[in-house]
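worker-3 :: picked ATPase AAA-type core domain-containing protein
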Amino acid sequence: SATLSLHPLALTAAAMPPPPPPPVHLRLRVSITPPHPLPLPYSRRFSSATSGPATARHLSLRCGSRRRVPVCAARSEAAGAEGFDEELGRLLELLPGELRRRVEDHPELPALVEVVMDLGRPPLARFPSGDFLLSHRPISFDDLRQATAKVGDFGGDNRAGISRTLHRISAIRNRQGDIVGLTCRVGRAVPGSANLLQDLVKDGGSLLLIGPPGVGKTTVIREIARMLADDYDKRVMIVDTSNEIGGDGDIPHPGIGNARRLQVPNQEMQHKVC
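worker-3 :: tokens ->
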């Protein structure tokens, strides 16, 4: 007779199923190179994050299928399209004469992002390549009063606009409610900025655009509204909380195409507008 002896640990190990394979994570990244290189200022801003000059600006898109797709918000030659120079001129009219001339003489004028005027501080013009000092003379109350007198009324969110343009003027107030700072941001309508999203827009699913300030979220949303109304013959109604999408004034900006727009008199009561 023969005796077979097995260690208990060996039996336990043999009875256990093999461990499952490690999970595989797939990350999809889609990038589009525009037909023409972006202006130099945009290449400068993003060159540090890539091995060569950047050719597109990216947003992060989250949709119902839980995919994340970078959205190219490329600002091509549309900045110099017909009508934009006139709209930009209306924004620059808010500045004192000396500051306006300094901005107009800047080589990156078509790519201007915003002008910052804070009480007691030198004014700045911000371009994708960096900040540009407009004057060593600090901003005074008179400078701020002259600028605010040329724009519409500021709402509860301390924002105002210029009629039939996409520019946004944001105010900073002190404890007494006086305006002590202005940020004059340039608004642009860029046709084709949402081309990468055509299949998602056509499917009719929900979209959430995520990105830091100044990367083109509002620009893409405006183009999506135009695309739905003009290209897909949808009935589009925009609930425009701060008149950022359709522009200031009662006549919407042509950038939204045939889409219609609901203005919101009070942000806290927006649900009643809908």
